[in-house]
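Quick question about two entries, pasted in order.
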Amino acid sequence: MKYLTSLLALMLLTAVIGCGEKKAGVVADPDEYEQYETPPGAMEQAQKEAQAAAQGS
């Protein structure tokens, strides 16, 4: 039981430390949006590649 309590405390501490500086409602700065955008046609291309790989297996 002591091991489980220590493990839970470590997990909680890690979660709290990992939060970092809080910016309410801000996920990314507007200047950084481009790096998160998916290029046109990338999803379709990935789907075609996945289907080809599945058929080739």
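Here is the second entry:
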Amino acid sequence: MGRLHSALDAEDDAILGKVYDSRVIKRLPKYMRMVKGRMALGALGTLIRSATTVAMPLVVFKATDDIVAGNINGLTLIALAYLGLALLMWVSTFTETLNLSYAGQGILYRLRTGLFEHLHSLSLSFFDNNKVGKLMSRVQNDVDQLQTLVTQDIINIAANFLTLLAIAGVMIYMNARLALITLSVVPVMAIVILIWQARARRAFIRVRQAIAVVNDQLQEGISGIRVTQSMSRERANLRQFDAANRAHLDANVQAAKLQAFMMPTVEILTNGAFALVLVFGGLQVAAGTATAGTILAFLLFIQRFFAPVMEIIMLYTELQRAMASAVRIFELMDVEPAVKDSSKAVDMPTARGAIAFEGVSFAYVPGMDVLHNIDFTVKPGETVAIAGRTGAGKSSMTSLIARFYDVTGGKVLVDGYDVSSVSQQSLRKQIAIVPQDPFLFSGSIEDNIRYGRLEATHDEIVAAASAAGANEFISRLEHGYNSPVGERGGSLSAGQRQLVCLARAILADPRILILDEATSSVDTNTERIMQASLRSLSAGRTLVIIAHRLSTVTNADRIIVLEHGNIVESGSHPELMAKGGLYAQMFNTLSATGATPGTN
């Protein structure tokens, strides 16, 4: 996990990898097999394009020498051959581009689907420790980079090297002395490239680091806009963002300077090679050891030689970045869920709703327990509330029932089954949770309620909404159940979102219904509706309610009171009030001041 966490840090997006990384190369064939036909056609197109790049100057060489020699009988045939090569170049380029694009999109599809599926298999502890923005970057940016690596970078670099070797070989075959003189600029270019690459690498890292800071501030600024506006922090936020944005500007300017230096440098070296051909080739023509066609062919070869050199230069950094992206993707794919089904896990039959904690201890961070040796039982159909101050461990207990986390000691039982001995899917089918912060997906109200049971009919959805007390407000909306909820349910009030979440849970028809402080952010009227709904829903179901407002759990069959991860009291509301302990103190404080005891 430590390696992955470092891979998900903000600065890690700026890291450039090795040009060759065996960890990546070994795993690429899995994703290339499904598009191997397209890859083969694309590679064939690339090879043919490279071959025509070498062949076309040879046709010009032949035509020029024939013209100089006064042999014009075959010019038409030579011209047709040149046009044929040009057509072949068009066909091969089209074949290459089309098939590599198809292959790239296929790999992109498979990678993104695989990552999405894998992320859904990971435990909540993983998402507790990793930012959503960085995970989005893996699924979007890094996958794009890896797709480019597989379908473009590797093939283009290989094709360019083959083109360079072919051109060099043909030039040496045609005129070895002139070829060696012409190619003498290559070592100079290699030295320039090495120096440039070292500086460019650092410059591109600074650019990536700077844009990561800009993106983080932008995401945070938009997400926290309500707080920003309520505290009149717009100007201060703008100054902070402007500083980050200016750092990004400066980093890009420095990178642009390096790019601006490299292009004309390659051009002047290319022109230097041209000059060498003109001087030494001209002397050879004058001496009768070379022909005019040879000189013209060499000039065309130089153009075609240094273009791949320039492309390789540009692809070098892209290849490093793509390799780094691939490493991050595969490291993420290698993360194992913290909570896994055992090899002997069985499917839980339909539950009656009994819950038992036997000596349960739990820690999010090793050595820092938030629950200590917890023991209690809940009978099927019983309504049990869990109360306590902020940080007492209330939400942690409900997370253990659904096995979102594994206990560090003891065991949690549902209907006598240790939750670690049954499949997570079969366990969670018995449980529905209505969270404190209701989350709605983009779509309609009906879509969100149906999420509780995807095959549900409209009538069943309306029945669930009615049972939750949501039908009344939904019916008043212009589009009723087809009303869009907006991003994260933003077009609905907090109370309305909570009622939709309750309807979603009811539609799932769970044996165990957990309300994790579900009334903490709703108004009094919505709370009254939810309480009435819960009283009718409790028949035949086990209800576990984490109490935010203690007045809402006075009718619970039993109230468990937590303090610092320990059960300090348990009983009905009258029994606990008579004891005069922690629960009575919190309740009396609430009654006297109207304040709400802390939650978590």
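Reply: The chain has two domains: 10-334, 382-391+430-594. Residues 234-287 form the longest helix (54 residues). Hope that helps.
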